[in-house]
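Hypothesis: this fold can be encoded by more than one sequence.
Test: take the structure tokens below, design a sequence, compare later.
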């Protein structure tokens, strides 16, 4: 199983080392190794395959394994001190500590984005708790149907764009609004799915979103 083969940090390092070419990590190599059909962990189909962009799958996979370098982890690694452990996405004067669960999607900023995406997909079910969201997708969004694949893609795209916005604020001092991130997620999803060879009735359904 993927989690047994790649679920600890030593194996992740080993896998990443096999994906190096001229000193650069080849995301396509990581993707092909980890999307092997023998993968049977419950979240495998939620994270890999389908319509996902490989870079979106990679960030989501690292999030599932709690391997994204969030500030709480950097503090535990003594790279940051506690005074620097603040979420850069928080809106208003009260910034919360940054952790995976805060970023996805307990933060007011990311919670807004996530709820907008669930609304866009027509879901009435709502949760901004990471474990609930992952369990819900793993249980309810399984299957090979195009619409299910697209809905899974929305989750990985949302995680990716929130993480990208967090990095833009920290490393480039660039801020975008939650509405702009919602547009980025929708655009990346639509650009992919409308290039797929899909039946007209599904295309019309997607275009109405
Ligand atoms: Zn926040």
């Amino acid at each position: 199983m993927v989690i047994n083969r790649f679920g600890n940090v030593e194996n992740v390092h080993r896998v990443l080392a096999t994906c190096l070419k001229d000193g650069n990590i080849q995301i396509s190599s990581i993707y092909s190794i980890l999307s092997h059909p023998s993968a049977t962990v419950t979240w495998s189909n939620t994270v890999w395959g389908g319509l996902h962009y490989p870079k979106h799958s990679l960030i989501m996979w690292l999030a599932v394994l709690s391997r994204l370098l969030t500030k709480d982890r950097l503090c535990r690694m003594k790279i940051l001190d506690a005074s620097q452990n603040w979420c850069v996405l928080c809106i208003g004067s009260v910034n919360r500590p940054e952790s995976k669960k805060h970023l996805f999607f307990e933060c007011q900023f990311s919670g807004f984005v996530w709820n907008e995406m669930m609304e866009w997909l027509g879901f009435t079910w709502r949760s901004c708790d990471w474990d609930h969201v992952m369990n819900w997708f793993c249980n309810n969004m399984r299957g090979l149907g195009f619409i299910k694949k697209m809905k899974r893609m929305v989750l990985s795209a949302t995680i990716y764009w929130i993480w990208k916005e967090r990095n833009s604020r920290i490393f480039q001092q660039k801020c975008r609004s939650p509405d702009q991130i919602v547009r980025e997620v929708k655009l990346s999803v639509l650009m992919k799915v409308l290039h797929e060879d899909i039946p007209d009735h599904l295309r019309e359904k997607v275009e109405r979103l």
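The pocket of zinc ion is lined by residues 87, 89-90, 96, 102, 107, 109 (CB under 6 Å). The chain has one domain: 42-207.
Hypothesis status: open.
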